[in-house]
Design brief:
This protein is mainly β. The protein has four helices and 19 strands. It folds into three domains: 58 residues; 125 residues, Beta Barrel (Lipocalin); 95 residues, no CATH class.
Length: 313
């Protein structure tokens, strides 16, 4: 994958001195892709913005297939080790929002009813459940949390209310101040407190790494636009995905493709649309003691690398 920065444009959002919106336009092969990220405005110069932009491109590069391992905690840090691990062990779904001196209220949802979700991994924060995908950096110091460099894709979205909500999320996340995880109940809870006293309460669902253990194998699968008839031992007239494995070098340049084959199982997080060809980045986990009629591996969608709508066959 080749990526070239064409321009950077900055403008101020919200209250003066609070947040700057930085726009990044890049080229990935023949497709133009826009990104944006929010930064504290005070004391920022364009040299620093450019440095952060280049760093952001490096983080989201296609070849970034491994994550750094956390260092061993000292005895002083040992008490917070479980909480820190729990933060990364769950997918967090926003359930209630409590403004200062106000009762808790149900969290807003997207137009399709999908709630806001947060994932924490190796100092990276991912936000889903909006029109665009948001991500950023986070750092912890005891019960303090600092979120910065919120970056977003710029997909055109028809729902103007959702777009405003999305922009509000991008501006609010850098104002988070404290966090607390409670794993003492069957449903773990994360509470984020913001500088203005607002609190978010999020419910946890175990991640694939928590469920299956260990680090996944990273693979790339190309999914053909149409399902194909295949012989399933339990389901008559079954239609399989048609897939082949794609390989890339360390620069993200495609180097080869395997043979097409039937794919009987589902890919968690992926919903196939007829007539759309995709290349998917997959995290593949090994399942211990799988049932007799189940695969020994579990494939989970990490990201869509390429997507192309094809002519009807």
């Amino acid at each position: 994958m080749r990526m070239h920065i064409l321009y950077i444009d900055a403008q101020r959002l919200g209250k003066p001195g609070k947040v700057t919106l930085v726009m990044l336009r890049s080229r990935i092969d023949n497709a133009t892709q826009l990104s944006r990220f929010f930064l504290p405005a005070k004391g920022i110069f364009m040299k620093k913005i450019l440095a952060l932009t280049i760093g952001m491109v490096a983080v989201i590069g296609l070849a970034a297939c491994s994550t750094p391992q956390p260092t061993s905690p000292t005895s002083a840090q040992q008490g917070s080790m479980n909480d820190t691990s729990a933060l990364q062990a769950y997918h967090w779904t926003l359930s209630t929002v409590t403004s200062k001196d106000q009762p808790a209220a149900a969290a807003p949802t997207a137009g399709d009813g999908k709630p806001l979700g947060l994932d924490f991994s190796s100092q990276r924060l991912s936000v889903n459940g909006l029109c665009n995908l948001l991500s950023g950096s986070y750092a912890l110091a005891g019960d303090r949390m600092d979120v910065s460099q919120i970056v977003s894709t710029l997909k055109a979205c028809p729902d103007s209310q959702l777009m405003r909500y999305e922009q509000d999320i991008g501006q609010r996340l850098p104002t988070v101040s404290n966090w607390n995880v409670d794993t003492s109940t069957a449903s773990p809870t994360l509470v984020l407190t913001f500088e203005d006293g607002t609190q978010w309460t999020l419910q946890g669902e175990a991640t694939a790494a928590t469920l299956y253990g260990g680090e996944p194998e990273r693979i790339f699968l190309e999914v053909a636009p149409q399902r194909v008839a295949c012989s399933h031992p339990l389901i008559p007239d079954y239609q399989c995905l048609h897939v082949r494995e794609i390989t890339y070098d360390e620069r993200g340049i495609k180097t080869g493709a395997g043979d097409w084959r039937y794919y009987y199982d589902g890919i968690q997080g992926y919903e196939h649309q007829a007539g759309v060809r995709n290349i998917l980045r997959i995290n593949r986990y090994t399942r211990e003691n799988p049932p007799a009629d189940a695969s020994s591996t579990v494939d989970i969608l990490d990201m869509v690398v390429e997507s192309e709508t094809t002519a009807a066959q």
